[in-house]
Design a protein that fits this description.
single chain; about 180 residues; mainly alpha; 8 helices; cell membrane
Length: about 180
């Protein structure tokens, strides 16, 4: 079992270094430092609240669902961050490229990735055509967390699964 874990960790570290160091470009620096904030608390809560309060029909319902999913999804995030206190990559790998104000809390799982999927999945259900834009956008937020040196790929994958699961449960029960 430890061989499998070591193999997975090795490949994850390689993928992290590839995204964080090998694909560096001025355009990507600017793009990812902006887009990453879409998964932050301010953007995710404000978007959900605005839709819930000012939206009409399916958009209002999606806003309410997003608020519920956002709340539900961050319970396991908080628990997992305490139970599995994984250091952020830039604290473990000195060659990591970071940007201003790197976070210091635990990295597993990615709260930003969880939040963006929690908010955008209900919107994709409300307006399926919009989902063609929203899901790639959510994936880019997750990728930005790796690019910026704040998360390992598995942090973002688990965040995606938590946010998506909370959204699917919310849409199923409050649809």
């Amino acid at each position: 079992m430890s061989r499998v874990v070591h193999w997975l960790q090795d490949h994850e570290t390689r993928l992290f270094h590839f995204v964080n160091q090998r694909i560096q470009h001025n355009f990507l620096d600017a793009f990812f430092t902006k887009i990453t904030h879409l998964g932050g608390a301010t953007a995710s809560i404000m978007l959900s609240l605005c839709l819930a309060i000012f939206g009409h029909g399916s958009l209002r319902i999606a806003g309410i669902q997003a608020l519920i999913a956002l709340t539900i999804s961050h319970i396991p995030v908080a628990i997992m961050k305490k139970k599995y206190p994984r250091l952020r990559p830039y604290l473990v790998h000195p060659q990591t490229i970071t940007y201003k104000n790197p976070l210091t809390d635990h990295s597993f799982p990615s709260g930003h990735t969880t939040a963006i999927f929690s908010v955008l999945v209900p919107l994709a259900f409300a307006l399926p055509v919009l989902g063609l834009v929203l899901m790639p956008l959510a994936l880019l937020v997750g990728l930005s967390r790796i690019y910026l040196g704040l998360h390992y790929p598995s942090d973002c994958i688990v965040g995606c699964l938590l946010g998506t699961s909370a959204s699917l449960i919310t849409v199923a029960f409050w649809g």
